[in-house]
C-alpha cells in the first residue's frame, strides 16, 4: 500500500507543482492590513484544496486572520497526528531586488544549477505545507493514522490569535504527536530532524527629542539628536566580545553540552563555507563559540530596521524629531521571554538621556525549546527521512523560532517533530526566496512515510 | 526720496504678499531630480518679476539648475552692492506633518497669534529674497547704488555649480560689498546682524555586510549585522562629554573670545526659553559651553538620517544586507573642511569591523566664516536695521552655513552683510515652515534702507 502511495506521489510531480504555484500567487502577507482580503482568500483556497484530498476542512474566523483545521475520519485505537503549518507569508520588500515578482512564481535553476520555484512563501511555509497536502492526497482516503491539520494565517506577525484558539479548541486538536515542516535540511541532500529552536523577543524602540524637526545648523550641538541617541543606545547592547550587555541576559541560559559541541564540530559545514554562503570574509559573534553554536544554542540580539530623518536622495540638514529601531532577540532554553523584554527596556531606559523620551512596542514573545531526541516518535521520523531521502538524517538545532511548538506542548501536552525540507540558501525572509523542486518531491515522500510510520507510535 | 520709497513699500503690502505666494507655489526642490523642471520654471518666473522692478535680468543655464543675475544701470563713482539669495527650497518631507500643503501657501496666525505665510521656502529663502525685490521696486528705477542680484537654484543641495559660475563671471559680479538675507532676527522684534556662520561637511556612510538580506533566526549572532555595526560607528563619534572624538577635530578651532562669551550671556534668551522653544526639558552638548556658544561657535556632529532593513508596519525578522546614515558636521573657523572629511572617514574606517564594507559619499564642504564687525558697511547696516525695525540690532553669530560667503570673499574679495529677517520658530527645514508677515514688511523696509545707506560706503 505504501508503495502505491509513493508511486502516486512520484507520478504527480507536475500537478503538485502547478497547484503549489496557485497557492504562491496569493499575496497572503499577514503583517500588512492592505492584504487582509488576500489572506482570507488564501485560507479559503487552501481549505478547498484540502477537501479535495479527502479530508474535511473548516475555515475558523478569528479577530485576526482565519485558521484552517482539517481532519480525516478519526478512528479509536490508532495514533493521532497533528500537522501544523502556516499559509501566511513575510512581506516581499524590498521589491526592486526580486529577479521575478514575489507573487509570480517562477521555475528556474538556482545558482548551483538545481531546479527551484521562486516566490515569497515558496519554502516558508507554503511549499512545505504542500508536501503534506500532496502526501495526504496520495493515501486516497486510506491514511493509517488520525490526522488533524492546523494551518494558521498569522505566523509571520506573531500568531496573535493562535494561543486562544488552541486553548478553546484543545479537544478538537488533541493528538499524540505534532509534526511541523518549517525548518531546513542541513544541506541539500542532507535531511534533518530539528530538536531545538530559539525563542524570540521582538521589540520596537522609539526615541523622541525636540517636538519638531529642526535645522541642524541652527540647533546642531545644542539639542539632543534622537538619531545619535538611538545609535548610542543600540551600540550599548553589545560589548567587544560580542556578548549582549543587558543585565541578567544570560542568567537562565542552559549551556551547551560537551556532547553537542563535539557532535556539531563533525557536521559538514566549515567556517569558510558558512561565511562564503552569505558573502562575507568571516563570521563573528559571541567570543568562544563557533558559528553553528552561536546560531543554534546562544541567545543573540539583532537590529532588523533603523528609521530616522531624511532618507531620500541627496542631502537634508535636519535634526529629526524621532528615531526608531526594530530589534529582535533570539532566546534559548530556559530564558524567560517576559523577563528578557523587561530587562531590555530597563537597560535602555537607564541609559537614555533624561531630555529625550523613549517608548517601546512589543511585537512577539516566545521561549526557546528543546524536544527529546530519544523518543519513539523521533526514531520513527528518522526512519521516514532515511527512506524518503535515501540518506540518514542529521540531528540538528535551529536558530529560528516556531513559537507554536511551546504552545502545543503547554496546551496539548505533546512534543513536536520538526521535519523540514528547506535549504540554507533558500533566502527565507529575503528577496528571491525559493523552494528546491527535489525537496518538494522528497519532502512529499517523507511526509507520506511519516504518516505511515507514525501508525506504529 | 527715501520717505517716498518707504511709503511705497507700506502701501504695497498686499500686492507684495500676493506675488510672494505665487513664488512659493512653485515646488523648486533642487535636491530632487523629479523637480528639475519646476526649478527651471521658478528661475524664469523670478527673472521676469525682477525685470518688472526696473532691473535687467538674465537666466544663466548651468550643468545643474539655472542662476539668475540682475542689474540696474551701473554708474561709475558710486558703490556696487551684490545681493545674493536662492530660489530653491528644501524637500518638504515628511508630508503628513504639514497642516496645509507645503506648496499651497496659507496665511494664518502662528502659535503666538502673529500673522504668517506658511509654505516650504517661505523664509528660506523666498520670503527674504522677496524683501529685496520689493525694496528695489520701490525705488522706481532710482536706486542710489549699483545693484547686482545673484540668485541661485542649488543652495539646498550644495551649490555645486556656483563656484565655477562666480569664478567665470567675477567681472560681471564685482562689487564693494555683498548682502545676504538668509539668517534670523535674534527674536521677533529683535533684528540682528550676523557676523559669523558655521561651515558644513555633509557625509553619507554605507555599511554592507552579508551579500543579501538574511533570516535573523537562521543567522542572528553568527554574522555581522550592518545596522548594529552602523550604530556602533555612529556612537563612537561622541564621548560622554558631548565632544566629537574624531582625532584632530578641534585642532584648528578658533576659541571663543571672553568678550563674545560675556556679550552672549547678556542676550535675552535663557537656557529655559531655548529648551522650551524646541519642546525639550533641557538642552545638551559639549560640556563647558552654553547652548548659544555651542550652536554659534563650536563644531558639532549630527545624524540627519538613518536607513536600514524593514521600516514598514509590524515585524520582519531580517538582518539587512545594508545600513546607511547621513551625517553632517558643522564647522567653525579655522577648521579645514577637507581635513575634517578625511579625518571622519579615517576614524570610521579604523573602527569598522574587517568583515563588513564601508563606503562614503560626500554631499557638501564649506568652511566656517567670521566677518569683521567694526567695518563701515556693518555700521551702515546697523543703522538701516535700527530705522527699519525701530530697534537697535543685536550682533550675533549663526549656527547654520552659507557657503557662498566664503566663496564671495575668496573670488570677489568682498565681505558679506548678513541681514536676515527669519525667526527662530519659523521651522526652517521642517514641516510648517513660515515667514512672519511683519518681518516681510519690516524686512522690505530694511532692505530699501540698506541700499540707501550703502550709497555712503
Automatic annotation (TrEMBL), chains A, B:
Listed Pfam families: M20_dimer (PF07687), Peptidase_M20 (PF01546)
Protein known as: Dipeptidase
Domain Peptidase M20 dimerisation per the UniProt entry, residue ranges: 195-354
MF terms (GO), sorted A to Z: metal ion binding; peptidase activity
Keywords: Hydrolase, Metal-binding, Protease
Listed InterPro entries: Cyt/Met_Dipeptidase, Peptidase_M20, Peptidase_M20_dimer
Keyword presence, Coiled coil: no
Domain of life per record: Bacteria
One GO-annotated biological process of the protein: proteolysis
